[in-house]
Write a structure and sequence with these properties.
Helix 1 crosses helix 3. It contains three helices and no strands. The N and C termini lie close together (6 Å). The chain has a domain of 54 residues. The longest helix is centred in the middle third of the chain and has 24 residues.
Length: 80
């Protein structure tokens, strides 16, 4: 995780939440976000939107900085 920028940390956390959720959906047909936030459909939708935006920001930042995070210098498979 990042130690330099709180936005970077939040973005990475959201990407991890999305990845874990999709892994659970694919492997076990279990949607953790829906299970936890199912009674609040607007909050659930907001989480999905934020996860998607975080993923887009990570892709854009890594593309701009040669595969590394622009804030902390970490990258895909690179421990930070």
């Amino acid at each position: 995780m990042c130690s330099k920028s709180p936005w970077c940390c939040i973005g990475h956390l959201l990407v991890v939440v999305g990845a874990l959720n999709w892994g659970l959906v694919g492997a076990f047909n279990f949607n953790l976000v829906e299970t936890v936030l199912g009674t609040w459909p607007m909050v659930e939708k907001a989480v999905y939107i934020l996860v998607g935006l975080a993923g887009l920001c990570c892709v854009a930042t890594m593309a701009k900085h040669g595969g590394k995070c622009g804030s902390c210098g970490g990258g895909m498979g690179t421990p930070v």
